[in-house]
Amino acid sequence: MIHQKMVEFERKYSHLTVISDKWYKKELKIESMQSFDIPVRDDAGEYNEEWYRARLMYGLVMSETIPSGVIGLELRFKKGSVGSTNIEPDVVIFKNSNWFKQYINYVNDNRDRAIFGNILMVGEGKKNTDTKGMVSAAYNQIFPVMQMAQRKKNEEPIVFGFYFDSKHDILLFKLKGLRSLERYFDISSDDLFSMRDSVNSFPTYDVMSNLVTGEKKIPEKDPSKLHYEELEAISDETFNDLITLLKQKALTTGIQGISDTQQRLITESVSLKMYDEECLRIGVYPTTKFYYLENETLRTFRDRFQAELINAARLAGQSTTQYSDNDYKFIKEIVRAFQYFNLSGAHGTSFNQAVFNNFGDNNIKSDLNQWFTPIPMMKSIVGMVNPKPNEIVYDPTGGIFDFLTMSFLNAFGKSMVDQAEHRLYGSEINPETANLGKLNLSINGDTKATNIFCMDSANSKLLDLSGLSDDDKGKVNRIQKFIPFNSETGEGFTFSEDDTTWVYHHPQIVNPIPVFQADVIETNPPFGEGQAYSKDEIPVELYSLASGGSEETTKNKIDKGIIFLENTYRCLKPGGKMAIVLSNSLMSKNETIYVREWLLTKVRIVAVIDFPQKSFADVDIATTVIIAYKPKDELERNLYLSEGADYEYFSKKIEEDMIGYTKSDSKKKKAKKFNPVFMVSQAFEHINLNFINPSEIVSKEELRFVFTNLKYQEPEIQEKIRLYEGKNRKEFFSKNFELKNEETGAKFVIHEKITSMVKEFKYWLIELKVKEPAIYNKFLTHNGAMWFGKLYQEYMD
Length: 797
Description:
The protein is of the alpha/beta class. The protein contains 27 helices and 27 strands. The strands form 8 sheets. It has an 8-stranded mixed β-sheet with strand order 16-15-14-17-20-22-21-23, with helices on both faces.
């Protein structure tokens, strides 16, 4: 199929720096009438129009949709008036291979018009995907040449056109006689440039030839016969177009504006679409049940759709509500819009912005806007933490669950949705936002999205009552009013500072996880001015930080960011990784020094990244991302958290020129009017901490001890040490060490045979430091340190 071949092109030719007429001739046997040698990237490093033309031509030729011999590039046609500029379409597809000779005759004598009778299709492309570019390409290049190709002796000749750009889908056109430009397939919109066509629906050479001769008509699509592989992966732009169209349709079905009903129907229908695609993918049935036939009555559609899809989805655990006839009028339009597309195979990285911009009322969008995390930042943060497929990932303040979405793509990818089912968890206090989060996850590939819960994660704690003192039990009544559920097993709360007994549960889960703690937590909670708990809103007994500051600091209220910082720590397994977005003031002001002191006694800091104001949507607050590791046992706690502990961590301040955003109207400052388009420079995009479990990291100081000990006390590796001290130093290092120096500072990870020895020695050092500090300090002055210092310096150089 064309789309698969285009993806193949992207992989096969990723090394290309220029594309020339000779490249087209050699690789695709396509002729160009002009010589050219064009770089494939612009000054900003982005792929340009030439790259996208080559990609599409590769797809058409290699999929055998169009023979290479009838494709011509860089042709120039003169307009009628003298002195006017030439029309230079990017691609022309001809009826037969005589075009080359005909074009030479036309160049020599413009009165020779035979070339125009041979034109079958005209194509033009742009780098950008805005409507202005589409209109320009259609009416300045495609349409004029299509008009030239009309032959008046035919009663109703037909010629075709296509538009392409960076997206994988396209626009297909037709022109009959001297009429106006039309879309190749009829669309349910008056906008000629909405609802793009699947590239796989590009008509073949034989189909177009038969259409021209009148032997066939443009085939009607039959959605009821679609197999899984025939569904086209939807792009974020097409998704936006379809949602816009559905909003217009809503007005004709009695659903006004961006209503709760509209949001619910779209969300549930898209979930049904995902269920249908999953059934197709695994072979439950061969052809789709998610379709609408134009000749169906509403009653027929309702009865069939409910019997074939809705009931089956409900039996499979899909959440749907009862629908009225008025609902079905709108559901019909939703099905009609999405039936040809594959949502679970969507391509593009902006679906979270599509969900954010298209759903929810203004109040919800305003709330979400404050904590909307831009895609490039989120990808970088998730890439640093690097969640793995065997790890449980949790976001306690999910919003529309962008962190979970990116974690799913990072750890699993769309082909591993079954493995992700019991690995991704999220909670969100607003039910409508939680539903948007499910939609966001589904569209991005996690079609099940089963572990999303509407709850207040700061207050919902289900803990063992055993061992509580009478005084503690007396506090339960006050705390209970904050809890939106009661335990069926009679459990309540414990106020132990020991986080291993501070057990966390989702209220909707009946103990599937005895102790719910996550391997990875990534979250962007509420914080800053206007986002504080009063003492009447939070059970302070659950959080040591709620009363840990000065009396003035915590007298009447406490920043929600502080509560969620502690909440994140307590929900994290020993040995777990966390990333949290907080106000920079929590990390810098004197009145919150108690928060920083508390944090340093709980986790090993891996990275601290400061962002300028307004980096996160319309929040006029400087923010800090903290990435940290929770020590897994007492030995690690002694190493990283004991008084005087010292270790390296990554620190980066993101300057204003490294990150910015644009607004459609810069005068509109309110969050609910904010429509962000974020841009991150390469300097930030390529930060990669390559998160290593600190238990596998040996610092420079520790490694110095290791080498000293190994050199003088471990005969089995003396030969390797001598090998280093001889001439084969590169061989020694290449076999036994790997340098980790990705903006985190130099870290050596011991490999293969001596890994276990190093770990044992590392724990011996920790014990020595704690129990025999005098001997430990004496060990620092061992002459082996000088030897390692020299070794270290030489290798770094």
